Amino acid sequence: MRLVEIEDLQVTFSQHDGLVQAVRGVSFGLDSGESLGIVGESGSGKSVTCSALLRLLREPPAKITARRMSLGGHDMLKADARTISGLRGRVAAMVFQDPMTSLDPVFTIGHQIAETIMVHRRVSKAEALAQAIEQLRRVEIKKPESVIKQYPHQLSGGMLQRTMIAMALSCQPDVLIADEPTTALDVTIQAQILQLIKDIQAETGMGLIMITHDLGVVAETVDRVVVLYGGKVMETGPVEQIFEAPVHPYTKALLNSIPGQVAGKRRLVEISGSSPNPTHPPAGCPFHPRCPMATIECRRVVPPLETKAPGQQAACIHVPALVAA
Question: At a CB cut-off of 8 Å and minimum separation 6, what does 280 contact?
Answer without folding.
Answer: 18
